[in-house]
Amino acid sequence: MGDYVVFHDVSWHASYAVYFFVIGICAGLSFFSFLSWHKPSLRPVREKSAYLSFVLLAVAGLLLISDLSQPLRFLHVLNPAYLNFTSPLAWGSLNIVTFGLASVAYLFMLRKGDEKWGRTLAWVTALLALGLPIYTGYDLTAHQSRPVWNTPVIPVLFVALAVASGSAVASLLAMGNEAARNMLRLYLLWSTAAVAVILVSILGTTNYGGSAEELTFIVLTTKTMGAIFIGLGIVAGTAAPIAMLLAPFGRRQAGLMFAALLVLVGSAALRYALLMGPQYVQTLY
Amino acid sequence: MSEELRTSPIETRGLAGKKRYAMVVDTRRCIGCMACQVACKAEYDTPLGVNRTWVPYKVVGTYPNVKKHFLPRLCNHCDDPPCVRACPVEATYKVEDGGFVLQRYERCIGCRSCMAACPYNARFMLPAHRTYTAITSVVDKCTFCFHRVTQGLVPACVQTCIGRSRVFGDINDPASEVSYLVATNATQVLRPEQGTKPHVFYIAGDRSQMEYGRDAYQRREVMDQERRMFERNFKA
């Protein structure tokens, strides 16, 4: 007692988790719009997914810019004289901009009804959309001193979360269409199952890690953060929807809608906990 | 360290013809007067609630075997700094001749990637409410007093240290005092496992302060309470 401890602030606040959530859905929807060119059952969600993905991209961009403490300098990340290619953020900003441009061109072709270019641009946007969860995950992975973040599975987890939350929103968009619903149910089920497997792997390696990992495990699994991560993220947002989708109830429209909403809540909670939890221990050092 | 051992092209320790400044902190000589912290605040007018250097202390042991340990902290001016890698716009950079890790305020976008990358909490955000200077809402850090060192002076914290606990110099110069101290004493650096090659060396640093968050194991409620008090009293 009587120690003099200087407390430090966390580097990235909760607004960044909101960005992760929005950009994940944006990427997922772009993927399903692309998939609709190859899976006829998903045709009803093609335009809706593409438009909503673009709107969410605009929201995500605004979130990202407003999160900077110098928002007007966001153009610095597009200045070739300034760009530092060892930073994942530099690659991410290029990824977002090229994805935005490709999305505009894709939407233009959708409106025009140009099948040939629409199909090509759907492929390009989906490829660039894949980069969004990968770069956001790599943004965390690159920080070697942070437990949980510094694991190679984080970008993979973010891809799985993007497909899960994207298929959840697409399920809501495809309400009433049985063929699309059945297809999206499979994507929702398998991507949520992938999230579950990766979470088990993360929890295992974190619990068996060094002191920082061990402390982070305690932070992530107890008290308020435990309620968010374990309660909302894993139990309500991952395990419950998987069980629901495997049950006969999950094949019905109401079941799928309910599971989709749970996955959205869970993926938001997981992103929040995975962003904030591993920063806690560092603030005490 | 020989040049052959360098693993990253950014590293300048042992590079012929280049200076590599380092600091040795002899914790046996530190009396916890905080004069270094005050000198730094005076030199840079660092706002309330943030510090370029700070001196945490910890009381260890149980009566009658009790000792107060100090561990002066600052940017480690790493030879392979993760903050430089993480900055998307090269607002933070390493000076090749000297090894200073510095910040370009006019370029910083405030994304806080460098803060997340730093294992030592050495970086902080300057508050937005500073009215007498345009340098606000950007990341700041210790510069090893670049402006003083390039004029042949030592950093303000070293200049003011009453016990000569802090010693500063060119570790690439075998005749310098820091080279002598590092060669002839058992020294430690903070979190060597991070591969950052820190250039602040501690003599007789206490394990309870150098290791990772041991307090949090036992007294999270107390730490949370202390954090709230700290934020109430010290955050502007």
**Residue-averaged pLDDT of chain A, rounded?**
95
H/E element order of chain B = EHEEHEEHEEHHEHEEHHH
Could you please say which CATH topology of chain A applies here? Formate dehydrogenase/DMSO reductase fold
Largest sheet of chain B, in brief, is: 4 strands, mixed
Our count of domains of chain B comes out at 1
Biggest contact: A-B, 46 and 51 residues
Q: What's the multimeric state?
A: heterodimer
Q: Give the amount of beta strand of chain B, in percent.
A: 15-25%
The tally of helices of chain A reads: 9
* CATH C-level class of chain A: Mainly Alpha
**Into how many domains do the coordinates of chain A divide?**
1
SSE blueprint and pairings:
The complex is a heterodimer of chains A (285) and B (236).
Chain A: H1 14-35, H2 46-67, H3 88-112, H4 115-141, H5 153-173, H6 178-207, H7 211-221, H8 223-246, H9 253-283
Helix pairs in contact in A: 1-2, 1-4, 1-5, 1-9, 2-3, 3-4, 4-5, 5-6, 5-9, 6-7, 6-8, 6-9, 7-8, 7-9, 8-9
Chain B: E1 21-26, H1 35-44, E2 57-62, E3 65-70, H2 82-86, E4 92-94, E5 101-103, H3 113-117, E6 124-125, E7 139-140, H4 146-149, H5 156-160, E8 166-170, H6 177-184, E9 187-188, E10 200-203, H7 207-210, H8 214-218, H9 220-234
Tell me what the structure shows.
- The complex is a heterodimer of chains A (285) and B (236).
- Chain A is an all-alpha fold.
- Chain A has a single domain, classed as Up-down Bundle (Formate dehydrogenase/DMSO reductase fold), CATH 1.20.1630.10.
- Chain A has helices at residues 14-35, 46-67, 88-112, 115-141, 153-173, 178-207, 211-221, 223-246, 253-283.
- The mean pLDDT of chain A is 95.
- Chain B is of the alpha+beta class.
- Chain B has a single domain, classed as Alpha-Beta Plaits (2-Layer Sandwich), CATH 3.30.70.
- Helix content of chain B is 26%, strand content 17%.
- Chain B contains nine helices and ten strands.
- Chain B has helices spanning 35-44, 82-86, 113-117, 146-149, 156-160, 177-184, 207-210, 214-218, 220-234, and strands at residues 21-26, 57-62, 65-70, 92-94, 101-103, 124-125, 139-140, 166-170, 187-188, 200-203.
- A four-stranded mixed sheet of chain B has the order 8-1-10-9, with helices on one face.
- Chains A and B meet through helix 3, helix 7 and helix 9 of A and strand 2, helix 2, helix 3, strand 6 and helix 8 of B.
